[in-house]
């Protein structure tokens, strides 16, 4: 019978101190203090528990791996969509710039008048604050 011995000043009050329970340590009083002897049957009981814990960890790791893959795929799709929207926005801005440039070239005096009125309105709005 394998056993582990550990000395303590006194046995813990919350532990069950009965030798008939396989998972309970047995305490014996000696001159050095209390001795805790762990029965070998604890190791036999711990092996299936350890196996189940290992299986649970493997399942958790697999689930985490699937979640990571899912997140990476959706992040990739989101990145593609952002790039598409940005390219579309740049194209619209370029089109608007071409239209404004063409209008200014066709009617330069009207463009200067519109710019002057816009500047006056902006200036008056900034002063009111």
UniProtKB/TrEMBL annotation:
Residues 56-79 are annotated as: Disordered. It comes from the Bacteria. Residues 66-79 have a biased composition (Basic and acidic residues). This is DUF883 family protein. The lineage of its organism: Bacteria, Pseudomonadati, Pseudomonadota, Gammaproteobacteria, Oceanospirillales.
């Amino acid at each position: 019978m394998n056993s582990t011995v550990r000395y303590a000043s006194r046995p813990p009050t919350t532990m069950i101190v009965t030798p008939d329970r396989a998972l309970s340590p047995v305490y014996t009083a000696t001159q050095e203090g209390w001795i805790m002897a762990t029965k070998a049957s604890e190791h036999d009981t711990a092996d299936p528990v350890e196996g189940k814990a290992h299986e649970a960890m493997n399942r958790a790791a697999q689930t985490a791996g699937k979640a990571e893959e899912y997140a990476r795929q959706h992040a990739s799709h989101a990145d593609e969509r952002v790039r598409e929207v940005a390219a579309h926005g740049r194209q619209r801005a370029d089109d608007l710039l071409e239209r404004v440039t063409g209008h200014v070239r066709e009617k330069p005096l009207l463009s200067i008048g519109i710019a002057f009125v816009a500047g006056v309105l902006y200036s008056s709005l900034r002063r009111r604050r």
